[in-house]
């Protein structure tokens, strides 16, 4: 053992800066967050231990409950649609031909995944503006009389955040499913052919069960990602949508950075971490239970 | 695959419809960007420049100094990606040594970082960056995600596929750690290195929360922040500083160009990385 350590001492030197980085810029801030959440915030920094007072303030602020509720609703919507909808284009991509068409379509639907949220909002604020493409079509076809203000309406706020998130990620998730589909044994499908199964039956009884392990993986990634929703909701936040889409992460930003109330903001951050860890833990447990 | 005619037809319909939701809005953005200010303000759908003009781009560069955010973002992306790739490779290289005592502890620490998303520690992150005197520096954007567990694990996965015997014989010949990395792991695991780099380039280019948090100095503004102020400025009511849709859309077109140039070359790696990443998580 000691000889091994001596032989490899230089490897420890190599990994040291990485561990030091994680300590300084992840674990230390995390610790600071917990520390600050028990401190009374002064103008120049924390001025003393005040126990659970910040947490009491957090939980007695109605806006916090609203943001937790918003986070959960957005997260549920993004996870539900973000996991299930991409199965459709994944199966479709396995069906289309020739190869260059398949590759072209694949490229196009994956592209939005690379765009920043600023660009996504910019693109859609043009298409969904009151005089934009969608409203023009809807008004002309007589479906609506007044243009819908998609980006400034309490009713549309949550569907917009959920819809655009699902749209942005649909190609990414579809490609994950597609990779799993390619490992499907063709003999199984052929056997089903011989038994006279039609396409829909094959999807239901062979393709979906085959995708199940991947669906679980995508479920976990999407759930964890959606609980931290920040950019999308932040950029769609305005006077008319704030109560619907202000997430807990946005609340900590507004309280801590804009209002400089570090104590309460840090406590809210700790609550957010706890909530996401608990939900992730439950999700993992449920998935494992199913497997057993 | 399914040998069903209706499903095949439906597949084409679904994919073309989905692709249209990506192509049509982008097309409309480009058409608006190349219109005059007056043309872009007309009601109705713009699917062709109306009339053709570069006014939007002109306003962007002359009045809004749009070159600066590009230069800053370019700097952060290049330096940040190089540093990220080198450090991740180092981490992957160390983890590849299975016989290293304490390897599981090191791997455990690295995995633990995955449970702390930066969105959750925004406020303490601000405090800590202030303590390190990194506020208002472009360095702060390079330092945030200087190395990540995801990239280290990806590198390690690729490094593991390099034949052990080859490494052993090179070591016999007296190759040191850096020589092994430079002459064997890097070239033989190049797809992995490129994958990490490709993801990091996109990540750095799209940085939004970090500059929002750390940077106030207008000289250090980065692309996404500049873009945000142009897009939100659209609703500005003061008449002499009114930013018309053609300017906003020109900004989006400019921001998209580097990504769209880069994408075809990197697509293979981005797709491979994500399926690998998906399986890993």
Structural features, described:
The complex is a heterodimer of chains A (292) and B (281). Chain A is mostly helical. Chain A has one domain (21-291): MetI-like fold (Orthogonal Bundle), CATH 1.10.3720.10. Chain A contains 15 helices and 2 strands. Chain A has a two-stranded antiparallel sheet with strand order 1-2. In chain A, α4 runs antiparallel to α11 and α11 (199-227) packs antiparallel against α15. The longest helix of chain A has 30 residues, at 262-291. Chain A is globular and about 75 Å long. Chain B is mainly α. Chain B has 2 domains: 5-63 and 234-280, no CATH class; 67-214, MetI-like (MetI-like fold, Orthogonal Bundle), CATH 1.10.3720. Chain B contains 14 helices and no strands. Chain B has helices at 5-33, 37-40, 55-62, 67-96, 103-112, 122-131, 139-143, 149-159, 164-172, 177-188, 190-205, 209-214, 223-233, 245-280. The chains are: A mainly alpha (292), B mainly alpha (281). Chains A and B meet through α2, α5, α6, α7 and α9 of A and α1, α4, α5, α6 and α13 of B. Chain B: One of its GO terms (cellular component) is plasma membrane. Chain B: Belongs to the binding-protein-dependent transport system permease family. Chain B: This is ABC transmembrane type-1 domain-containing protein. Chain B: It is a multi-pass membrane protein.
Which characteristics define this entry?
heterodimer; A: 292 residues; mainly alpha; MetI-like fold; two-stranded antiparallel sheet; B: 281 residues; 2 domains; 70% helix
Chart the SSEs and their pairings:
The complex is a heterodimer of chains A (292) and B (281).
Chain A: H1 2-7, H2 9-37, E1 39-42, E2 45-49, H3 53-60, H4 62-84, H5 87-95, H6 99-110, H7 117-127, H8 133-140, H9 154-181, H10 186-194, H11 199-227, H12 231-236, H13 242-245, H14 248-258, H15 262-291
Antiparallel strand pairs in A: 1-2
Helix pairs in contact in A: 2-15, 3-15, 4-9, 4-11, 5-9, 6-9, 9-11, 11-15, 14-15
Chain B: H1 5-33, H2 37-40, H3 55-62, H4 67-96, H5 103-112, H6 122-131, H7 139-143, H8 149-159, H9 164-172, H10 177-188, H11 190-205, H12 209-214, H13 223-233, H14 245-280
């Amino acid at each position: 053992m000691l000889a091994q350590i001596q032989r490899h001492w230089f490897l420890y030197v190599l990994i040291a800066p990485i561990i030091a980085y994680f300590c300084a810029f992840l674990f230390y801030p995390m610790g600071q967050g917990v520390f600050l959440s028990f401190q009374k915030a002064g103008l120049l920094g924390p001025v003393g231990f005040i126990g659970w007072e910040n947490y009491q303030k957090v939980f007695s602020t109605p806006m916090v409950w609203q943001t937790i509720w918003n986070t959960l609703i957005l997260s549920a919507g993004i996870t539900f649609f973000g996991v299930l909808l991409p199965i459709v284009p994944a199966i479709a991509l396995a069906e289309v031909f020739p190869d260059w068409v398949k590759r072209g379509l694949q490229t196009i639907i994956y592209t939005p995944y690379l765009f920043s949220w600023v660009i996504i909002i910019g693109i859609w604020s043009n298409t969904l503006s009151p005089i934009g493409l969608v409203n023009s079509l809807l008004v002309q076809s007589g479906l609506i009389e007044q243009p819908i203000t998609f980006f400034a309406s309490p009713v549309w706020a949550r569907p917009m955040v959920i819809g655009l998130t699902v749209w942005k990620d649909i190609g990414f998730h579809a490609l994950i499913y597609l990779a799993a589909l390619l490992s499907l044994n063709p003999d199984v499908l052929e056997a089903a052919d011989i038994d006279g199964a039609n396409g829909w039956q094959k999807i239901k009884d062979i393709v979906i069960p085959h995708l199940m392990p991947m669906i679980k993986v995508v479920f976990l990634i999407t759930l964890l990602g959606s609980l931290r929703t920040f950019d999308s909701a932040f950029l769609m936040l305005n006077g008319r949508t704030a109560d619907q889409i202000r997430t807990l992460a946005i609340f900590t930003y507004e309280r801590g950075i804009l209002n400089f109330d570090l104590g309460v903001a840090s406590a809210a951050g700790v609550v957010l971490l706890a909530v996401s860890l608990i939900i992730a833990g439950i999700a993992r447990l449920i998935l494992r239970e199913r497997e057993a | 695959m399914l040998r069903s005619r209706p499903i095949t037809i439906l597949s084409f319909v679904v994919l073309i419809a989905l692709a249209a939701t990506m192509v049509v809005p982008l097309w409309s953005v480009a058409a608006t960007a190349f219109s005059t200010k007056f043309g872009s303000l007309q009601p109705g759908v713009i699917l062709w420049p109306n009339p053709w003009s570069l006014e939007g781009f002109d306003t962007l560069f002359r009045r809004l100094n749009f070159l600066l955010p590009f230069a800053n973002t370019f700097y952060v992306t290049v330096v940040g990606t190089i540093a990220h790739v080198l450090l991740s490779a180092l981490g992957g290289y160390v983890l590849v040594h299975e016989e290293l005592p304490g390897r599981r502890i090191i791997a455990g620490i690295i995995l633990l970082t995955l449970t702390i998303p930066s969105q959750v520690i925004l406020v303490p992150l601000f405090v800590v960056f202030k303590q390190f005197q990194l506020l208002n520096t472009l360095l702060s954007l390079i330092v945030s995600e200087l190395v990540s567990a995801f990239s280290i694990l990806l590198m390690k996965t690729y490094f593991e596929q390099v034949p052990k015997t080859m490494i052993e014989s090179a070591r016999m010949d007296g190759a040191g750690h850096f020589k092994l990395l430079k002459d064997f792991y890097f070239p033989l695991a190049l797809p992995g290195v490129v994958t990490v780099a490709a993801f990091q380039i996109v990540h750095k280019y799209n940085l939004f929360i970090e500059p929002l948090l750390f940077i106030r100095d207008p000289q250090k503004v980065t692309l996404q922040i500049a873009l945000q102020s142009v897009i939100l400025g659209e609703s500005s009511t003061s008449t002499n500083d009114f930013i018309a849709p053609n300017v906003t859309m020109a900004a989006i077109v400019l921001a998209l160009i580097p990504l769209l140039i880069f994408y075809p070359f990197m697509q293979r790696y981005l797709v491979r990385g994500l399926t690998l990443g998906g399986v890993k998580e």
